[in-house]
Amino acid sequence: MIRPVILAGGGGARLWPLSRTGNPKQFHALVGDQSLLQATLQRCGGPNFHPPLLSTAEDQRFFVVDQLEEARVTPAAILLEPVARNTGPAIAAAAFWALARGEDEPLLVMPSDHLIEDTAAFQEAIDLAFPSASAGELLTFGIRPTRAHTGYGYIETSADDDGAPVRRVEKFVEKPDLARAEQFVKDGGYYWNSGIFLLRPSAYVRELKLHAPEIATHVEQAMRGASADAPFLRPDRDAFAAAPNLSIDYAVLEKSDRVRVVPVDFAWSDVGSWEAVHDILGADEQGNVLKGDVLALDVRDSLIRSDADVTVAAVGLERILCVITEDAAFIAPLDRAQEVRNVVEELRGRGHSRADEPARVHRPWGTYQTVDRGDRFQTKRIIVKPGGKLSLQKHKHRSEHWVVVSGTAEVTVGEKTSLLEENQSTYIPAGTPHRLANPGTVPLHLVEVQCGSYLGEDDIVRLEDVYGRS
Amino acid sequence: MIRPVILAGGGGARLWPLSRTGNPKQFHALVGDQSLLQATLQRCGGPNFHPPLLSTAEDQRFFVVDQLEEARVTPAAILLEPVARNTGPAIAAAAFWALARGEDEPLLVMPSDHLIEDTAAFQEAIDLAFPSASAGELLTFGIRPTRAHTGYGYIETSADDDGAPVRRVEKFVEKPDLARAEQFVKDGGYYWNSGIFLLRPSAYVRELKLHAPEIATHVEQAMRGASADAPFLRPDRDAFAAAPNLSIDYAVLEKSDRVRVVPVDFAWSDVGSWEAVHDILGADEQGNVLKGDVLALDVRDSLIRSDADVTVAAVGLERILCVITEDAAFIAPLDRAQEVRNVVEELRGRGHSRADEPARVHRPWGTYQTVDRGDRFQTKRIIVKPGGKLSLQKHKHRSEHWVVVSGTAEVTVGEKTSLLEENQSTYIPAGTPHRLANPGTVPLHLVEVQCGSYLGEDDIVRLEDVYGRS
To answer: What is the model's pLDDT at position A362?
Structure first.
């Protein structure tokens, strides 16, 4: 049996504006109907796999919970990293978690935001790797390069092992320039480093103690002091923070002689740029990938997406990226799409909220989104999950009008609690304590019209909260 | 004294998606804060000018009224063309209108959607033209070409008149190819045909009777049978429709020997394409024209507009047009921006409402705009002008919740009429007759949440309407 470990924290600016820090790429359906995280969950289903351990950040925990629920997956636990410390410590935490349970079966460590569509081929590769991993080697998976990609690290295999299903590693090569990448492809024996690993907890800890003992010490201590709040598990903050911020590659793989690689041929992508998204998705006869309400006339080799209720018309473009969401758009040559990082940095520098905050804001109880705003008012769409319950709260400067448009709301205004059905409304005067909950079994959709002189999110006094936010 | 005649009907697809049939370009502030129509009104203010006569289409009359009100201009009349018949008949209607009032002072005929920023130079040119126009010549204004433009018609002047302020016309030349246009600029004596005219009503009618007698006959009859509904004047439909659909150029100017041209040097544009908009507006050091919340990194010679609450980021573009409105976007090389007509045609072919309908829909009483929609509901922002009054109406399939967010509403629901102030709301059950009016002196803003199984605009029974729509 194998224990999947899914690394679901962090990142997301590389696919701005669709993906932002406040709603990063692993939670988006970039290909098909499932998010990248959900596709990753599905990839490690089946009789050979234990329920997965997920690792994420504190402020992304409700995304992960929502996505697990949607995918009907019950996790073994959700490890909340108190601070981001890269993959070396993250995988160490998973290893100590397993060992503490008395488990030492191989962990299948996977980033949550990669794309592998051929699940059968993937599971075959795992089967190939399993005996070596069980024997205490650290197994990596090397993707046979389809082109001289400069955005990936490479694994050079030992020439002696040529043709073997499991090979020794000569060395790890960081992202090469184009000339070297072309040489790698020509020479053969070089593989893209997929960031997917199969390793026994004891084997990883053994190698950690040899090559990065500080990680082993501090993470072991952090896990010993972890506090449980099922399904969440929080390692001790100070101990975890003391661990060096290192990737597994740098901390262990580049140094250990117990690393092996399984060369594989299946299509894989780290979905690390808009250009990668264009490459992955099936282009039409003109080489275009179009999504949403898009009209493209004489357009070639382009990626044009409307992720909002916006009609996008393009004429005479070649190798252009154009992504339009409800509150932001990005246009660039596909070959320069990775410069979106400069956009995000520039917006952050200007204090622009859209650098990191998505239009639809996720909360433990559901989501909200501003759909209109004007002088002294704004209109929001609020969606409350079944069982979701907002805090008991009040506002100093604004009154609120709520109209239930779908589902059932349990509404408390002052001392009175009542149920509102579709097409019913209520009014909450400024200063009055109130609370909104969804007692039903389907999502509750509500239109909220706020009136007042100040409408900022910070005009909120939380009197009581089931999610520990008051 | 001079009587301005402003032709404010028609068109608008060339600046899609900002300008659409349902809200065409003359009503938009493309440069500065005023719309092109309002800038045209301002250009013919001052002591030498009578109040203007406006000519427009029936379904654009409330736009024109709104814009006149905003500009604080009281028109002499607003002529509503029952069918579009091009400039020959439109100017004929203005001429017969003047003659019927016993006026024969020169008419200054101007399209409402051209741009001339130097009003002083423009009025100087009018002064130069005035004596000849008063003497019965038909005066045109020829713009000295600044480049070999292939999108304009040219006027060739007589070589004998070289240097004279008012010159005879050798001939009118339709839009030339680039080689000919370059030759015109090189040769000199060729001017862009601005579509602005100064002519006495009697002189125009005289030339019409010589060269296009059918226009004279039918339009004279249409004006004799016109019905007045001040400030509107409606020519008889059948008679007007019988007039040939011809431009003044084709019907008269190319044939008459009484045509003269005043060469002028001021900057002029027909704002006939997005490329023209880029040329007109002052570009920054990188040659860019940026409007709204736009971030441009390493972008050159481009026009990027955000006409919505959308952050637009662009990287690495050159001579690209990108216009984003609340419900549509258009991206193309600037040099191919005129192909937007293919976009509009294609969208029309697909029955796409956004080909012609703007996001904000104009009605005689004000505007409305859908800001959110979902399963069985939609949310609108409604703005009612001071004094505006919607029809007494009912809906079969939807209920409505109204929240006043600014101004005062007079609300009738069933038998009851009441006043709602900011932050008050009401509910209108399906099937109940209701009416909304703004009795105040400032605009009324209202958020409407509709709930029901069918939410189309055609679910409306109008029981009574002050604008004659019931």
So the answer is: 86
A3-269 CATH: 3.90.550.10
Q: Which of B342, B400, B445, B451 is the mutation pick for testing A, counting most A CBs within 10 A?
A: B451
Q: Mark yes or no for CB contact A451/B340 under 8 Å.
A: no
Q: How far is B333 from chain A (nearest CA, A)?
A: 7
Measure CB to CB from residue B336 to each of A315, A375, A376 and give the nearest one: A315
Mean predicted confidence (pLDDT) in B290-309: 96
Q: B5-43: per-residue pLDDT in tens?
A: 999 987 778 999 999 988 899 999 888 789 999 999 999
Low-confidence ranges of chain A (pLDDT < 70): none
Domain boundaries, chain A: 3-269, 277-349, 360-464
Q: Which of A322, A340, A449 to mutate to test the interface with B (most CBs of B within 10 A)?
A: A449
Q: Render pLDDT for B354-367 as a digit per residue (tens, 0 to 9).
A: 999 999 988 889 99
What's the confidence (pLDDT) of residue B53? 98
Tens of pLDDT, residues A62-79: 889 989 999 999 999 999
3-state secondary structure chain B: CEEEEEECCCCCHHHCCCCECCECHHHCCCCCCCCHHHHHHHHCCCCCECCCEEEEEHHHHHHHHHHHHHHCCCCCEEEEECCCCCHHHHHHHHHHHHHHCCCCCCEEEEECCCEECCHHHHHHHHHHHHHHHHCCCEEEEEECCCCCCCCCCEEEECHHHCCCCCEEEEEEECCCCHHHHHHHHHHCCEEEEEEEEEECHHHHHHHHHHHCHHHHHHHHHHHHCCEEECCEEECCHHHHHHCCCCCHHHHHHCCCCCEEEEEECCCEECCCCHHHHHHHCCCCCCCCEEECCEEEECCECCEEEECCCCEEEEECCECEEEEECCCEEEEEEHHHHHHHHHHHHHHHHCCCHHHCCCCEEEECCEEEEEEEEECCEEEEEEEECCCCECCEEECCCEEEEEEEEECCEEEEECCEEEEECCCCEEEECCCCCEEEECCCCCCEEEEEEEEECCCCCCCCEEEECCCCCC
A462 lies within 8 A of chain B by CB:
no
Report the residue from B330, B374, B399 with minimal CB separation from A445: B374
Residues of B in contact with A445 (CB under 8 A): 374-375, 377
pTM value is 0.89
Selected residues 431-450 of chain A with any CB under 8 Å from a CB in chain B: 445, 447, 449
Judge: A327–B309 Cβ closer than 8 Å, yes or no. yes
Question: Are the beta carbons of A374 and B313 separated by less than 8 Å?
Answer: no
Beta carbons of B315 and A340 less than 8 Å apart: yes
Disruptive mutation site among B18, B377, B382, B448 for chain A (greatest number of A CBs within 10 Å): B377
What pLDDT shows up at residue A469? 78
CATH superfamily of A360-464: Jelly Rolls (2.60.120.10)
At residue B280, the pLDDT reads 84
Q: How far apart are CA A469 and CA A460, in angstroms?
A: 12
B393-434 per-position pLDDT tens digit: 999 999 999 999 999 999 999 999 999 999 999 999 999 999
pLDDT, residue A311, reads: 98
Contacts B381 to A, Cβ<8 Å: 372, 374, 379
Q: What is the pLDDT of residue A209?
A: 98
Q: Give the model's pLDDT for residue A470.
A: 75
Q: Do B405 and A449 touch (CB under 8 A)?
A: yes
Q: Does A296 touch chain B (CB under 8 A)?
A: no
CB contact (8 A) between residue B316 and residue A327:
no
d(CA A9, nearest CA chain B) in Å:
26
Q: State the Cα–Cα distance between residues B87 and A141, nearest whole angstrom.
A: 73
